[in-house]
Amino acid sequence: MAEVATPRRSRITPERAAELYEAVLDLLREVGYDALTMDAVAARTRSSKATLYRQWGGKAELVVKALRHSKPGNVGEIDTGSLRGDLHALVTMDDDCTMEQNSALMRGIAMAIHQNADLRQAFQEQLIEPEMAEFQRVLQRAVDRGEVRPDCPALDFMLHMMVGGFVTRALLDDRPPTQAFLISYVDAVVLPALGVRAS
């Protein structure tokens, strides 16, 4: 009996994956999630659609991996010695131009998440849950240092507060989030909610 050759999974280098992710984000900004197709990604990146499906399984997985790849760093690794310093370091990881682009991108993704269960699941598992775990490390260090009481009720809403300031800036003020705005927001809203003095 003849042996059946199993198809080999082609390896995509980290550099090539980064190019693909950037192209996906560009397409998302241009057309939004619903209009983005694997055909368009394949054409933009000069890839085969089969390779894209083999590597990422589908559009939702590819989009979420691209979003995760675009994050500037690991929140959990920030350790300045104070919660205020950590949060200021967090909000200055991106420059104002990048924040404006990401704000528009996230508004579009937020709309799509409500209508696409596969995107919602991938977003939850690969972005929200890891982000919550990273924030927990930052907060646990603040608790261990005695900056925040371990029973502070605002601890459970930390990520909500941070995302809220970022997302609602455009919604309420029709302006993009900026480093200056987010630093002021951290000092005026987030730290007081956690019982931490901003000065």
Number of helices: 9
Structural class: mainly alpha
Distance between the termini: 77 Å
Unreliable residue stretches: 1-9
Q: Bin the strand percentage.
A: under 5%
Q: Strand count, sense and closure of the main sheet?
A: none
* Global outline: elongated
> Approximately how much helix is present in the residues?
55-70%
The total count of strands amounts to 0
Mean pLDDT metric: 88
Order of helices and strands: HHHHHHHHH
**Radius of gyration, in angstroms, nearest whole number:** 20 Å
Descriptive report:
This protein starts with 13 loop residues before the first helix and ends in a 6-residue tail after the last helix. It is mainly alpha-helical. Helix content is 69%, strand content 0%. It is built from 9 helices and no strands.
From the structure above, extract its key features.
199 residues; mainly alpha; 69% helix; elongated; disordered N terminus
Short structural description:
With 199 residues, this protein is mostly helical. Helices cover 69% and strands 0% of the residues. Residues 1-9 have low confidence and may be disordered.
Question: Which helices and strands, and how do they pair?
Answer:
Layout: H1 14-35, H2 38-45, H3 49-56, H4 59-69, H5 83-91, H6 96-115, H7 117-144, H8 158-173, H9 179-193
